[in-house]
Automatic annotation (TrEMBL):
<dbReference type="InterPro" id="IPR025659">
    <property type="entry name" value="Tubby-like_C"/>
</dbReference>
<dbReference type="InterPro" id="IPR007612">
    <property type="entry name" value="LOR"/>
</dbReference>
<dbReference type="InterPro" id="IPR038595">
    <property type="entry name" value="LOR_sf"/>
</dbReference>
<protein>
    <recommendedName>
        <fullName>LURP-one-like protein</fullName>
    </recommendedName>
</protein>
<dbReference type="Pfam" id="PF04525">
    <property type="entry name" value="LOR"/>
</dbReference>
<comment type="similarity">
    <text>Belongs to the LOR family.</text>
</comment>
Amino acid sequence: MTQPEASAPSVAYAHPAVAVVSPHFCSPYPMDIAIVRKLLTITHGSFVVTDVNGNIILKVKGDHLLDTAGYPILTLRQKLMSAHERWQVFRGKSTKSRDLIFSTKRSSMVQFYTKLDVFLAHNKTEKVPDFKVKGSWSEKSCVVYAGDDSTIVAQMHKKRTVKSELLGKDHFMVTVYPGIDYAFIVALIVILDEINTASIPTETTHIS
């Protein structure tokens, strides 16, 4: 099994089935996926998510995470007038509070090094985040932690190839650890990308 880089904390694997979105998106084994952005499109949020064999497993269009049939799984929305650049993620096409699954809050951003605190919907006090995301956007890499900083649940790095650059595509390779909801991880990385590229859909602006 692939070990984290030497600079990362020692890994404690997350307990089985951390199904933030759905158990359907959890695997008992480590899962390598690619998030591919089409750089030459005029539409923000155009991504496809593939497995190691190149099969499409998810899509991102505008502020929606879609399944392969185009059915909305999640709606990602930036909250207006937010001091900490807060994002909210809802089930399906809904933006109602009862369908909120989780929210993120930027805790710091210094020279493209971004930290996000992630709170599940039931965490009303938000004193302690349920997950954390830390990443250097200049290096196109990030690590997702569960709870404290000792349990890694996913890691991302950018894949650069001559072919992908010629095709106008950006590849983000992600290793999702066993029992972790990969739809949840994809949503976090899309949010991180939006924060750092400033191509952000808001509560009053939809990107289709």
